[in-house]
Amino acid sequence: MIKAIINYFKEIFTACRTLITGMKVTGYYFFHPKEIITQQYPENRATLQMFDRFRGEVVLLHDENNEHKCTGCSACEIACPNGSIEIISKKEIDPETSKPKKAIDKFVYHLSMCTFCNLCILACPTDAIKMSKSFEHSVYDRSKLTKVLNKPGSKIMAGIKE
Amino acid sequence: MNFNIYDFTEFIISIDNWLKQLLSPGLAKITGMALIGVTFLLFVTLLGLSIVYIERKVCAFFQQRLGPMRVGFWGTAQTIADIIKLIFKEPLATKNSDKFLFNLAAFIVLISPFMVIAVVPFAKGLHALDFDIGLFYVTAVSSLGVTGILLAGWSSNNKYSLIGAMRSGAQIISYELSIGLSLLAIVILTGSLQLSVIVESQRDGWWIFKGNIPAIVAFIIFIIASTAESNRGPFDLAEAESELTAGFHTEYSGIKFAFFFLAEYVNLFIIAAIGATVFFGGWMPLHIGNFTFFNEAMDIIPPIIWFFAKVAALIFLLMWFKWTFPRLRIDQLLQLEWKYLLPLSILNLVLMTIVSLTGWHL
Amino acid sequence: METTIFYIFAIVILIFSVLAVTSRRILRAAVYFLFVLLAVAGLFFLLSFNFLAAVQLTVYAGGIIVLFIFSIMLTSQVNDKLEPIAAKKIIFSLLAAIAGAVVCISAIMTYRFSEPKNIEVDAGMKTIGKYLLSYGENGYALPFEVISLLLLASLIGAIMIAKRDNT
Amino acid sequence: MEDLLNKAETQEYFINMGPQHPSTHGVLRLMLTLDGEIIKKVEPHLGYIHRSIEKMSEKDSYYQMVHLTDRMDYLSCHINNEAVCLAIEKGLQLEIPDRVKYIRTIISELTRLSSHQLWWGVMGMDLGAITTFLYGFRDREMITDIFEETCGARLTMNYNVPGGLMFDIHPNFQKRTKDFIKHFKKKLPEYDELLSGNIIFTERTKDIGYLSKEDAISYGVTGPSGRGSGFACDVRKRIPYSAYDKVEFKEIIYTEGDSFARYKVRMDEMKESLYIIEQLIDNIPEGDFKAKTKAVIKLPDGEYYQRVETARGELGVYIISDNKKNPYRVKYRSPGFSNLSALDTMARGGKIADLVAMMSTLDLVIPDIDR
User: Fold this and answer.
1) Same domain, C5 and C74
2) Residue D8 confidence (pLDDT)
C-alpha cells in the first residue's frame, strides 16, 4: 500500500522531469537567437549562390559572337524521358564546303515537362547544353514555360561536328 | 480630472462624477456602461492582435525561425493584415448545417471571456466589477464557454467537428474541478473570494512565496488545468489538427473563424491574469517582508506594469508548453485529471488547511 | 434605471421561454433555454444576490445545459426535427397554461403584499458560508451534509455504470 | 441492471480519413469504422496518386527508367535509383568499380538519415509537437545541401546511372559529410530529450499498435517497422549489396512490436547509419566513377531481381527483358504497400489518435504505395 503511494508520487516526479528536459531544449533555442537558421529569401537574392551542379533548367550556351555548339543531332531529344526537348532542324548551306548541312532551326524546351534528370546533358556529344542555376521558374502563363533556347540569329560555332 | 498612474480609484471616480455632472443620473449610468463596454471591446481586440503576434514570434524563436517579418517592422502589422484578410473572406457554411446555431456558436464562445475580463483587477482601482464572489464568479462564467464549442461542433454537420466538440466538452468539464480546487487553496489563506482583497493580502509577499509548498503545488495544478481548459497544446485535442483537421472549428471561415481564434487568445490572457492575481499578487509589486528600502524601490514601478509583466511571463510559460510537448490522447487526458490532478488538489487543499491552521505560512 | 433593466430581462425571459417551448429543433430549444437561464442570473445580479447568480451560472447554465446539449448531441442529428404537435395537444396544453396563469395572476392580485420593512439582507459570501456550516438556529449543516452524501452516492453510481467494460 | 447496460448498445459509424487529411501525409484514404473514438476497422483506399510508374518504365530505355524511381519513395530516392541500377548491372554482368560502391553506400546512408530525420519531425508533429518538425528539417537541410552540391538536386537527385554514377563526388563532399556527422552527433541527443524520453510521447506510443512477429512476416512488413516486431529483415545484412559487406553495423531489432519499438528502431538506425558513413567516408578508393556501358543498353533475355533496403523497408526491383532496348515488364515491390496492409491489424481497438501515431511509425510515403 505504502509502496503504491510512493510509486504514485515517483511517477509524477519522473513525468515532470522528462517534461522539463524537453522544455530545456526548446528553451535553449529561444534564448539563443543566434542559432536561427531562417534565410530571408527575396532579400538575400544578391548573396544567394546555388551550387555549381544545381539543375535549374536546360540552357543552350552561346558565346559572345552569338554562336552555339548545337549541331541538331537530337541526341538530347532521344535521351529525354519526358519529351521535353524538341529539335526542329533545317538544312543549311555550309559556307566552307558549300554542301547542305543539318542545323537547328529551333531548340524547343518545354520546362513544364522537364524532370531535371540531367540525361540530355549527359547525352550531348558537343557539350552544347547545360543546366543553369536559375530556380525561379514561376510564371503566370504556362505558355511562357515553352522556351526556344537558341537565340535569334545565332549560328553554330565553327569546327563543331557531330 | 486627476490622473495617478499608481492609483486609478480617483481617476475612475472623477470620470464618474464628470458624467453625472453632464448627464441625468440614468443616462450617466448607461453612458458609463457603454464606455466600459467599448473600452473592453477595444482592449480585447488589441489583446487578441498582440497576443497572436507574440505567439507567432515566440513559437518561431522556439523553432529557430524568425516568424513574420514582412508586414511592418519585424512583422508587427502581420496580425492586422490577417484580420483584414479574414474580414474579407467569404463566410462559408456546410450544407445541411443548422445555420442559426452555426452562426450563434461563434458569438457564444466570446461571451464568457468578456464576462470574466470584467472582474480582472488591472491595477489599483482599475477594474469594472469588484464582487465579493470574485473567484467563484470567474469559475462560474468560464464554464459557459464550452456551450459555444459544443454548439459549433454539432451544428457544423461534420463528424470531425462533432468528435472535437465531444472531446472538448469532456475536457473542459473535468478540468474545471481542478482549477476550482487549486484556487480554493489560496482562498483558504486569504479568507475571501474578492479579487481586490486577494491582491491586498499579498502586500507583504506573493502567495506563491508565502504559502509554503501547498501554494506551489496549487499553482502547478492550476497552470496545467487551465491550459487544458483553454484547449491549448498539449491539451489541444479539440482541434487536434493531425487527427481532426481542425476539430470543432473545421467548417468555420472568415470572421467567424476569427471569433474562435480571438476567444482562444483572450482565454489565454484571462488564465494568465487570474493566475497572476491569485498566485503572484496581481498588480502588487514585489514586496519582501519588512525590507522597507527594497519595497519602496519596487513601488516606483507602476502597478499596471507589474500586472502586465506577470501576465506576460505566465503567457510565455503557457506558450513554452504548447511549443514543446506532444498532444495527449483523450483517455490519458481524462486519466491525468481524475487520477492525478484531482486527488492531488484535494490532498493539497487538506495540506493547505493544515498550513493555514498551524500558521506555517508567512 | 433598474426597473428598465428589470423589464429588459423580463422580456428576454418571456421571449426565449416561448421560443424554447415552440422550437421544433431540440438543440435550438436547449440554447433558448440557456438564454432564459442567463437572463435569470442577470435578475439575481440586479438584486445583488451575487452568490445566487453565480450558482445559477455554474449549475444551470454551465452544468445542466451542457448536460442537455451533450445528450442531444449523442442521440440526434443536425437535421432531426420534432414532429409537429397535434392540434388536440396544443389546445389542451394551451388550456392548462391559461388555467395556470389565471391561478397565478389571481393569487398575485388578491394577495396583499406588505411594504418591505427595510430589512437589510446580508447576502455576502461570509454570511452564506457561516450559515451553510452552522449547526445552530437557521444553520444548514444537516442539509449540507445530506446533499453531499447524495452527491457522493450518485458519483459512485456513475463510476459503476461507466466501468462496466473493464470488469 | 446488467441487462439494461447490455441493451444500451452503441452505434458504429463510418468516417473518411483522407484523401485530404493532414496526417495521412498525402492522398491516402482510410475508411474508418468507429465506435465512439475506438477503431473497429480500417480500410485503406489507394489509387489517388497512381502514376503507373511501372508501365511508364516499359516504354523507357534503361537509362531513362531510373529517374522515375525518384518519384516513388521520394524520401529514399537514391536507394530506389540504386536498386534499379543494381538490377540492370546484374543483367549486364558489369563489374562495378569499388569507388562507385563506396559512394553509393555513403549516399544511401545519408538518404536513410535524411528520411529518418524527416520522419522524426513529422512523427512529433503528428502527435502535436510541432517544434520537432522544424528541428528535424534543420538537420536534414545539411544533408540536402550535400546532395545538392554533389548530385545537383535536393530531393529527386537521379545520381545513379546503370554502370555507376552520373558524376564523380564533389571535392567538398567528404568535408561536408564529416561536418554533418559532427553536427548531427551533437543534435541527436536533443531528439531523445525532446521526444523519446517525454512522458506524453511514451504514453502515446508504448503498447499502442501492437504487431506480432508472425503478423509482420505474413504481411511482409519490412524495414524498421518489421524490425520493431522482431523480424530480422535487413537486406543490408542478409543479402549485402554495394559496400555493405565491407562495413560493420548492427541490425537493430526490437521485439516489443509496438509503436515505441518502431520509433526506437529508427532512432538507433540513425546512429548506425552515422557509424557506417564514418567507416567509409575516409576510405573511398580511387578509380572511375562509372563502368563502361554502351550508349544503348540491351539486357539479355531473362528475369532479374534485386532487393535493397530503403528507409522504409525492402524494395524489390523485378525486370523481365526480351533483349530490346526497353524492358518487357517491370515490377517494384515497394515497402510502403506491404507495410500499409498491416495497418488494419494494428489499429483495431485503438483510438483515432493512436491511428495517427501508428501511421507515423509505419512511415508511409503515399507515392511509394501507389507508384
Assistant:
1) yes
2) 54
Q: What burial letters (b/e) apply to B179-208, b meaning 16+ CB within 10 Å?
A: bbbbbbbbbbbbebbbbbebbbbbeebbbb
- Per the CB < 8 A criterion, the answer to whether D93 and D323 are in contact is no
Q: Is B321 on the interface with D (CB under 8 A)?
A: no
Residue C153 pLDDT: 94
CATH 3.30.70.3270 holds for A57-156: yes
C-alpha cell at D132: 520537432
Residues C1, C75, single domain; the answer is yes
D128 contacts in B (CB within 8 Å)? 233-234, 236, 240, 242, 325-327
pLDDT digits (tens, 9 = 90+) for D85-108: 988 888 888 888 888 888 889 999
User: Does residue C106 belong to any structural domain of this protein?
Assistant: no
Instruction: Identify the band that residue C100 occupies on the pLDDT scale cut at 50, 70 and 90.
Output: very high
B55 touches chain D (CB under 8 A): no
Same domain for C69 and C129, yes or no, is no
Q: Give the closest-approach CA distance of B244 to chain C in angstroms.
A: 18
pLDDT digits (tens, 9 = 90+) for D128-148: 888 888 888 888 888 998 888
Report CB contact under 8 Å: C69, B132. Answer: no
Say which residue the cell 518489421 belongs to.
Answer: D226
> What is the distance in angstroms between the Cα of C41 and the nearest Cα belonging to chain B?
11
Span C55-82, pLDDT tens digits: 888 888 878 888 888 888 777 766 677 7
The structural domains of chain A, with segments of one domain joined by +, span 2-35, 57-156
Q: Residue C61: which of B111, B165, B170 has the closest Cα?
A: B111
Q: Which of A59-68, C67-76, C100-109, D24-33 has the highest mean pLDDT?
A: C100-109
Q: Which candidate from B63, B240, B242 shows the least CB-CB separation from D134?
A: B63
Residue C73 falls within a domain, yes or no?
yes
Cα dihedral C38, C40, C43, C49 in deg (nearest 10): -90
What pLDDT band is residue D3 in, cutting at 50, 70 and 90? low
- The answer to whether residues C27 and C92 belong to one domain is yes
Question: Best residue in C7, C24, C31 to probe B by mutation, most B CBs within 10 Å?
Answer: C31
Name the least confident of B231-235, B290-294, C97-101, D240-244.
B290-294
Q: How many CB atoms lie within 10 A of CB A79?
A: 20
pLDDT tens digits, D196-212: 888 888 888 888 888 88
Cβ separation B136–C79 shorter than 8 A: no
C9, C67: one domain: yes
Distance from CA of A4 to the nearest CA of B (A): 13
Q: Is B104 on the interface with A (CB under 8 A)?
A: no
Cβ of residue B335 closer than 8 Å to a chain D Cβ: no
Q: Which residue has the cell 535549374?
A: A56
Beta-sheet strand order (sheet of D329-333): D302-309, D314-321, D329-333
**Cβ–Cβ gap B64/A29 under 8 Å:** yes
Smallest CA–CA separation between B215 and chain D, in Å?
25
**Domain limits for position C134:** 122-167
Closest CA to A156 of A78, A100, A102: A102
This model of the complex carries an ipTM of 0.82
Residue C108 covered by a domain: no
Residues C140 and C88 in one domain: no
Whether the per-residue pLDDT at C167 is higher than 50: the answer is no
Domain count, chain C: 2
Tell me the shortest Cα–Cα distance from B239 to chain C, in angstroms. Answer: 18
Lookup: cell for D324: 530490346
Question: Highest mean pLDDT: which of C18-27, D305-314, D345-354?
Answer: D305-314
Interface of A with D (CB under 8 A): 14-15, 18-19, 21-22, 24-26, 37, 50-55, 79, 81, 115-119, 122, 131
Q: Contact A22/B61, CB-based, under 8 Å? A: no
The domain that holds C8 is classified in CATH as 1.20.120.1200
Average of per-residue pLDDT values in chain D: 86
Residues C10 and C77 in one domain: yes
The residue among C83, C98, C113 that closes a domain is C98
Q: Is B250 helix (H, G, I), strand (E, B) or coil?
A: coil
Do both C81 and C132 map to the same domain? no
Domains of chain D from N-terminus onward: 47-370 (1.10.645.10)
Query: How many Cβ contacts (< 8 angstroms) between chains B and D?
Result: 79
